[in-house]
Specification:
Radius of gyration: 27 Å
Number of helices: 22
CATH topology of the largest domain: Rossmann fold
CATH superfamily of the largest domain: P-loop containing nucleotide triphosphate hydrolases
Number of domains: 4
CATH class of the largest domain: Alpha Beta
Length: 503
């Protein structure tokens, strides 16, 4: 079979019209590329490409600092139904590049790396539709389909031959990975990359278990409150006729086992079965869940590994710790610059730290001048981070976030909604203070917890009730501009409003 594949590959290579692209046939054993296309139709013959996104994968790392994204200007008219799916309007694509140029840029990015995708066959067919007339070949890259890998893993534990849901939303949920907004070519590519690494990590754990004699594997997925927890008892007692050791996976996508499940897990943790490795997969848990009896019982009986996000306040320490491992440090000015460039994108932050180890020697104290040309701007923001910035009075950060949100294509509707919601909460607290009610009670009544309390108190010291009322009126003006009732630029109005609140 390999001989036939090599023969067909060599024959196809001879059809290459431009020798400049011979690099497509050169292997990259250490890297892959996850990629996705957004199109105007699901029919390859009539569809046009409107955007392409891709990201490189090296080992267990997604190189978000080495990503690819282009908008393509379609030749025909887009249907309104398509706009609802991917959110790209004709005016958004007015500055797009011709599809041929986009394909050439994609080839330069992927090289001979294997391609990873979700229903990859369609995306490859779309590229080949234009590539064949351009260079006389189809994409020669090895193809890795994540839905197929997922299906195989699920089928191994699906003893009842039940239906396996291959929708991306379902796969993301069951694998416990962050769910980026879909129908964006780059986000979908990153989602696929995360799914692949999650699937491969699971395979690695299973392989390690098998190497130690845990040949039997059983998976229990708790998908509803009606789950029969007696299955856990049965699974702990049963072992295959052909294996003496078992790997038992318990998946709780919702993170809430319910009363019956709590009791079952506590009982299980107290009487762990012999010759069984138990792997329990959970999403991010809140404070109540972390303090629950069932979680405490599991933690006491085993090892807990948590992947916690790093907020803006703790990001400098996180970066400093990573740099210390490679015997490097940043001065204060350089650290501020680095954090601003990577905020909200921890994966990319790690990539940028690793990059510094390659660019600069161990023992170096790096300055702002060193970083300005070395660190990519990979910061990612959301509307909740924006609230934190203007509430705390950080005008420069507020401006950066607004620029970032606009560049990322965030809708101004969501931004003004969050602003108005935060302002209404401040008004309620300010009115309560006028009435003589204690601050602590007002914060509790308005569901303000943790670090956010400090930001709210800081804002109340700056903003009077009159300024808050004026700001709410300004939100209404932004809303009118968004709806087309006013000719003003909504983002310009938002910038003026948010910076005024932060000042």
């Amino acid at each position: 079979m390999q001989i036939i594949e090599r023969f067909l590959r060599a024959r196809e290579r001879k059809k290459l019209a431009n020798p400049q692209y011979d690099f497509l046939y050169e292997p990259h054993p250490d890297e892959m590329v996850s990629f996705d296309c957004e199109t105007t139709s699901l029919d390859v013959k009539e569809a046009e490409i409107i955007s392409i996104g891709a990201v490189k994968i090296r080992g267990r790392e997604i190189l978000t600092s080495e990503s690819f994204y282009v908008l393509v200007k379609p030749e025909g008219l887009m249907q309104a139904a398509n706009v609802k799916v991917h959110g790209l309007r004709p005016k958004d694509l007015s500055d797009g590049i011709p599809v041929e140029e986009a394909v050439y840029q994609l080839l330069d990015f992927i090289g001979g790396r294997p391609l990873v995708g979700y229903y990859l066959e369609y995306d490859v067919a779309m590229i080949n539709k234009f590539l064949k007339p351009m260079l006389g070949i189809r994409l020669p890259n090895k193809q890795i389909e994540v839905s197929s890998i997922y299906y195989q893993q699920q089928a191994e534990s699906n003893i009842h031959n039940a239906y396996i849901d291959l929708r991306m939303a379902t796969m993301v949920k069951k694998l416990g990975i962050p769910d980026l907004p879909r129908h964006d070519a780059l986000n979908d590519a990153i989602n696929v990359a995360m799914m692949l690494l999650a699937l491969e990590a699971a395979d690695s754990i299973r392989a390690a278990a098998r190497a130690q004699g845990y040949d039997d594997r059983e998976v229990l997925t708790v998908e509803s409150q009606h789950f029969d927890w007696s299955q856990l008892v049965e699974a702990s007692l049963s072992v295959s006729l052909f294996a003496s050791r078992k790997l038992l996976e318990i998946r709780l996508p919702g993170g809430k086992p319910g009363a019956a499940g709590s009791e079952a897990l506590i009982h299980y943790a107290a009487r762990l079965p012999a010759d069984t490795v138990t792997l329990i997969l959970l999403p991010k848990l809140d404070k109540t869940q972390l303090n629950s009896k069932w979680f405490e019982a599991l933690s006491a009986a085993g090892v807990t590994l948590a992947a916690q996000p790093v907020d803006r306040q703790h990001l400098p320490n996180w970066v400093a710790g990573r740099l210390a491992r490679q015997q490097q440090r940043l001065n204060d000015e350089a650290m501020q610059f680095f954090v601003e460039r990577v905020e909200g994108n921890l994966l990319a932050a790690r990539q940028e730290v690793d990059k510094l180890a390659l660019l600069f020697p161990a023992g170096a104290t790096l300055t702002l001048a060193d970083l300005q040309s070395a660190v990519a701007n990979v910061a990612r923001y959301d509307v909740f981070q924006l609230s934190e910035a203007w509430l705390s009075g950080d005008a420069p950060r507020t401006a950066r976030m607004l620029d970032g949100l606009q560049a990322e294509g965030e809708t101004p509707v969501l931004v003004v909604w969050r602003l108005a919601d935060e302002l209404r909460g401040l008004v309620r607290i300010r009115q309560g203070l006028r009435e003589g009610r204690p601050m602590a009670q007002l914060l509790r009544d308005n569901r303000v917890w943790g670090e956010r309390q400090r930001h709210i108190e800081h804002a109340l010291r700056r903003l009077s009730l009159r300024r808050l009322a004026d700001a709410l009126a300004a939100c209404a003006e932004v809303d009118q501009a968004i709806k087309g009732a006013a000719s003003d630029d909504p983002w310009l109005l938002l910038r003026r409003l948010a910076l005024g609140l932060a000042g």
